[in-house]
Amino acid sequence: MKICHITSVHRYNDTRITLKECRSLVEDNYEVHLIAPNTKETEFNGINVHGITNPYKGRINRVKKFSKEVYLKALEIDADVYHFHDPELIPIGLKLKKQKKVVIYDIHEDVPKQILSKTWIKKPLRKFISVLFKKYENKSVRKFNALITATPNINERFIKLNSKSINVNNYPILSELHTLNSNKKINEPYVTYIGAISKNRGIETMVSAMDLVTNKLYLGGKFASLKEYENVVKKSGWRKVIYLNQLERNEVKDVLNKSIAGLVLFYPEPNHINAQPNKMFEYMSAGVCVIGSDFPLWREIIEGNECGICVNPLNNEEVAKAIQWVIDNPAEAIRMGENGRKAIESKYNWEYESQKLLRLYKELS
């Protein structure tokens, strides 16, 4: 069976799309193609990558113009199954259904809730756009052959709309980030945040908290907001930040090996409360203690597995106190990291989740 994954937003080597889903399908002997923006035609880990350059500026042009080029490339590949990953590609999915193709929609986020926190949308318009998109998405998903959701909470919404909706959690690959060497965690007791850098993901809290502690912060990722906002963040506590910019996967592993704790301090936005951020499980996979936002679901994972500390992400002093405690109690922090790794090995791993994906494809073949 010839399979084509499609994204107009994510990189060709995206962790969930490429390294997990596409690679698992290749290992199960499927012919796998991937359409991705701004890369070259190549073979990557057995996946046939079809790069399309996006010359259009702005989100609206990407949706209106670039998506047409993505659709034409999808038709050219002529796959048996199309598996798309971005909500802006719903119209393409519907067009492919009209071509009698099997279509899977992979839902990474609860987009209507996500829209409520989008700073680039004027606040008075957010609720209206959120409601409008939810109606459109709800109507569209009934027409697809299957839906894959990234969290159980998202799946609860979509299983009511399409009985072929399954949850495939974005848990880590067991071997990717784990290392047996933990000595550096004592010698270099730095805390780490790796991911998209934005206000609602807690960057201001992280940087401000560093002014109140004795160690430093490894910061990996790109600023998701305007340059002006980046300058605002750099005014407070930035002297304690080692900014690493965008990291490749092998670099992520190296940084986590030198870290005593990983930070995941999302603000209590509608799309965050029941989210399962990949970075939290990656910290656990690397055997690193987690300092996370005190949401009920996150508390159940972090404190339930005794692998970290939950804090109010809006309280700089509480975050700083947790960071300093980890620095002052390295043996206990390492024990928490080991507990997190055990939890990954027993239940939160991609090796188990991938079986759900493969079963779905067999049912569709």
Short description:
It holds the Pfam family Glyco_transf_4. With about 375 residues, the protein is α/β, with parallel strands linked by helices.
Q: Strand-residue fraction?
A: 15-25%
- Quickly give the structural class: alpha/beta
User: What's the number of structural domains?
Assistant: 2
Shape descriptor: globular
Gyration radius, in Å: 21 Å
What do you see in this structure?
The chain is of the alpha/beta class and 365 residues long. The chain contains 15 helices and 14 strands. The strands form two sheets. The chain has an eight-stranded mixed β-sheet, with helices on both faces. It has a six-stranded parallel β-sheet with strand order 11-10-9-12-13-14, sandwiched between helices. α8 links the parallel β9 and β10. The protein is globular and about 60 Å long. This is Glycosyltransferase family 4 protein.
Would you spell out the secondary-structure blueprint of this structure?
Elements: E1 2-6, H1 15-27, E2 31-37, E3 42-44, E4 47-52, H2 59-77, E5 81-84, H3 90-98, E6 102-107, H4 111-115, H5 123-141, E7 146-149, H6 152-158, E8 165-167, H7 184-187, E9 190-194, H8 203-210, E10 217-220, H9 227-233, E11 241-245, H10 249-257, E12 259-264, H11 278-285, E13 289-293, H12 296-302, E14 308-311, H13 316-328, H14 330-346, H15 350-364
Helix pairs in contact: 1-15, 8-13, 11-14
